[in-house]
């Protein structure tokens, strides 16, 4: 297996497109973007598997919604064949399925349709950098597996830094719709306006290439997104930098990423047990190291912990 170096990354691999120059950069940097991922594996944990609802255990598969759309490296994107899902979230889903004695079926979808699929029980789980929030807890159950940090990315060489919400006043910032990053950005903006500061302009783009085109052309001042994705792009592209990093659950709580399932489906305890099993056997740490996100490791999985507040 080709080792993933600390300074690695591709931007976005869009299904159906030809070779992406940044995909080639990924290969040069040592990122394995091939179909043959040689993933970290684990063994079945009987205690975790016993917690599965009978119909899932008998079916033998774990149907996973991966809401990264056209791609969000290193969290989830497509391999060189433009159809095989790879990335941190995909590897974690494979580990959990392995610990439960199931075969994973990774179904790539959009962020919005991921939650539609969870609501209809089309997906047994969502592994897609989903942050625990109090609002989401009204509809979903969570088993945590990674810290959630978010970051601002801007063109390199500027003197603007984001140390608090006040620093976004008057700026134009892109963010993903329906994300916890969006909620934090909107809350900050509303607080600034109430305090008499200039409003920020919030922009939305359909995909990362459009976002980064807007950033490079100066149509936006910054992009607010998941820290792993920002760090990945900064390292590879060489044209941008991180200008601020925060917890994805707001100023008073460490954000957490979790395996997500429809509320009261009975699946979350099995996911928690499987995650704690792979944390204990070391396979979890190897996956995070593989994708250079070891700093986001957790010591144990938690069920439905406190999340981003309804108001912040």
Automatic annotation (TrEMBL):
Indicate the segments annotated as coiled coil, or none if absent: none
N-terminal signal peptide: 1-19
Q: Which CDD domains match?
A: PBP2_MidA_like
**What InterPro entries does this protein's entry cite?**
Solute-binding_3/MltF_N (IPR001638)
Sorted alphabetically, which keywords does the UniProt record give? Signal
**Which Gene3D superfamilies did the record assign?**
Periplasmic binding protein-like II
- Spell out the Pfam families in the cross-references: SBP_bac_3 (PF00497)
Q: Where is the Solute-binding protein family 3/N-terminal domain?
A: 61-295
Tell me where on the tree of life, at the top rank, the source sits. Answer: Bacteria
Q: Which PROSITE patterns does the record cross-reference, listed alphabetically?
A: PROKAR_LIPOPROTEIN
- UniProt-listed SMART domains: PBPb
The name under which this protein is listed is ABC transporter substrate-binding protein
Source species, please? Kribbella lupini
